[in-house]
Design a protein that fits this description.
Layout: H1 2-36, E1 38-43, H2 50-60, H3 67-95, H4 107-111, H5 137-140, H6 149-154, E2 162-168, E3 174-180, E4 199-205, H7 221-233, E5 242-248, H8 250-256, H9 277-291, E6 300-304, H10 310-331
Helix pairs in contact: 2-10
């Protein structure tokens, strides 16, 4: 009789043990997945292309943009249009140039342009004389306009806070890509993501050699990138961390050196044995960065990239991920 009465209790204990065992197994598996997850931290000054890399990764790994995101990018495109022409007007003022007389009356319309929010319709009254600066306005101002993939890759906006995207490769391995804002005001947040990093992906805008910072017109973008890279390469947080250097916007750099001599901004520049300033400039800036990392025990892996071209980026990233994985396995003592 006693045995019969105790039977439900025995079953309850057995069920509880099975549940606990199952939970423990799931926790162990989740812990292993977390340990195996490569955590890639993207760093670099503002306008280096970090966010564009993150967007291209989404295209490479088939993570489409949601309608709400496209609405955000649509509004951002028109912010870019407005900011772009305002920048042109500012440069014209610096040079002592002025608009043609028939266009001067439109200047106030730019000053009074409303700030767009996500989901709002695009502005209707954009001066037609902007068409010389923007080649595809007719398409952008169609009532059913939705940003294309290329639009999304080319729209610009300042990254604030910390953005994380997890991607899974065809071989089943996953990595977490962490994007942080590059402007000076955002860098105080970087310390919060320094722990547990598998690799640092440092981005540099090659065309920054002739450009100033958004937040400081007296500072050169490339000089800022060099100082920032030196501080990251020498940081004790990353002394044993894989370091990847992307010299980005290579396509724009190739065109820019034709009209903006590098030596005007970097007097010590020489072309060396290279036939042109495109190849000479690439080699020069690569060496400038590598010299800043000579004290590191880990090698710095350098690649020239164009973040707006996902197909080229995919080829580069496959090589980079192999390096990250190899170093991760070596650190775990699984290979020598």
């Amino acid at each position: 009789m006693g045995a019969v009465c105790s039977s439900p209790h025995v079953h309850d204990v057995q069920d509880a043990r099975r549940i606990n065992s199952s939970i423990d197994k799931q926790l162990r598996e989740e812990g292993k997945r977390e340990r195996d997850l490569a955590r890639v931290l993207m760093l670099g000054a503002g306008e280096s292309g970090k966010t564009t890399i993150a967007k291209s990764m989404r295209l490479i790994y088939n993570k489409p943009f949601e309608p709400s995101e496209l609405a955000h990018y649509k509004a951002q495109i028109f912010r870019n249009l407005l900011e772009g022409i305002c920048t042109v007007l500012a440069v014209m003022a610096d040079l002592g140039a002025d608009l043609e007389e028939q266009n001067r009356s439109h200047r106030n319309r730019l000053d009074d342009a409303p700030e767009l929010s996500d989901g709002q319709p695009f502005p209707l009254n954009v001066p037609e004389n902007l068409s010389y600066f923007f080649s595809d306005l007719d398409r952008l101002f169609q009532s059913n306009f939705t940003p294309t993939t290329l639009d999304v890759l080319n729209v610009r906006g300042m990254t604030t806070g910390i953005q994380e995207n997890k991607f899974t490769r065809s071989d089943g391995r996953s990595f977490l890509l962490v994007d942080v804002g590059g402007q000076r005001s955002e860098r105080r947040k970087w310390i919060h993501v320094f722990e547990g990093v598998t690799a640092v992906l440092f981005l540099v805008s090659l065309i920054g050699y002739s450009q100033c910072l958004i937040e400081d017109r007296d500072s050169n973008q490339m000089q800022e990138a060099l100082l920032l890279f030196k501080s990251i390469a020498e940081s004790p947080y990353f002394k044993d961390t894989s370091m990847i250097l992307f010299l980005n916007k290579d396509d724009l750099f190739k065109r820019k050196v034709l009209t903006h001599p590098i030596e005007r901004f970097f007097p010590d520049y020489t072309r060396g044995d290279h036939a042109d300033d495109y190849n000479g400039g690439r080699a020069y800036f690569k060496q400038r960065f590598l010299r800043l990392s000579q004290s590191r025990s880990q090698e710095v892996y350098t690649h020239f990239t164009t973040a707006t071209d996902p197909s080229l980026l995919e080829e580069t990233w496959n090589r980079v991920f192999h390096i990250i994985l190899t170093n991760q396995l070596r650190d775990a003592g699984m290979i020598y």
